[in-house]
Specification:
The structure is a homodimer. Chain A is of the alpha/beta class and about 220 residues long. The first copy, chain A, has 9 helices and 10 strands. At the A-B interface, helix 1, helix 5, strand 9, helix 9 and strand 10 of A face helix 1, helix 5, strand 9, helix 9 and strand 10 of B.
Chain lengths: ~220, ~220
Amino acid sequence: MGIPEKVINRLTMYHFILEDMREDEKYISSTKLANLLNIDNSQVRKDLKYIDNQGKCRVGYEVKSLKRKIEECLGFKKTKDVFIVGAGNLGSALAKYDSFKDYGLNVLAMFDKDSKKIGTMINGREVFDISKVGNLAQRLGVEMAILTVPKEYSQGVANYLAGAGIKYIWNFTPCILDVPSDVKVWNENLIGSFLQFTNNEKDEKAKDDDRNKSMYG
Amino acid sequence: MGIPEKVINRLTMYHFILEDMREDEKYISSTKLANLLNIDNSQVRKDLKYIDNQGKCRVGYEVKSLKRKIEECLGFKKTKDVFIVGAGNLGSALAKYDSFKDYGLNVLAMFDKDSKKIGTMINGREVFDISKVGNLAQRLGVEMAILTVPKEYSQGVANYLAGAGIKYIWNFTPCILDVPSDVKVWNENLIGSFLQFTNNEKDEKAKDDDRNKSMYG
């Protein structure tokens, strides 16, 4: 059975909480998880039913087993190899974001068109000329790219990636990409996030339980 | 009337599309907007009703006026001053992300505890000692901070920011912050995004129209 995206999002946040618990904390209650995320207790219990985890009366969920089940369910161990296309500030920051690998995201290589960057290493990943994407994607079996090029190049590079066999683009540029139907795009809309946060603040009544990210306070 | 978060998110994406249109394209249809985001035509029309914009029969929406209305509605011109706390890779990348200012986000200063960084400039913003947050927040009337410190410091720094008068924390760390009830947190859950994208791919049937970000393809 598929898990709705908003549940996946919350499961990762429960995992962050479990990760931060002390060794001697063996159990956690749905109330504690709910309070930390400022959501309903019943929502937590509903979410955890997706991963077939049973809380125990009075003591709550066993931390280790809950963590393991979230990991299995969301495939943290099934590592996904990705390329970062655009070795600028944001691309480099993402290459240096070491938490990714704990959750199954493995950055294999980076690409840029700037000859000054090509051949350099960023946190252990070589920066290649962008013209090599297709060849390397095929050789290494990589289908996913994180797109962090400047805004004005995003559509052109997306076209190029689609032609080079990339099937999944995680798009960090503030552009809506027009891609062939066999290519999937996930927009990491940072500007939308900021405006949701600040507009929400202006009008608390606009609160929307279906939101994907969590605003709490 | 409050606008639901997912509508705010889509409105910013419509704005990205309008921004990229050529000068001579005066009108855009809801079908074109819908196709680019792989959502329903009727969804686009519903969203645009929130900003009181009327499409014209046959020709569609007037690009300039639609753009202006989205800008007014979401407050792009009402600039919000923010601090970036954590002048590492991600913090620096966000300080260099020039699109932010077009959408009303103005990074005033950065903070770190690393003496090698303090006093340096990142894209025109000075890096101050983190102990100065409270004083500067009060003097400059800043209530919002972007949190980009390493994971292990996030809760401690969040406590400190709360004590220093920061009321809104845009959290880029993979940690769930436990903050006083007068402080609001927005989690930029990059890991959750990645897992939503990749798990979605595995099971197309899990598609969820209520998603906040857009996956299309």
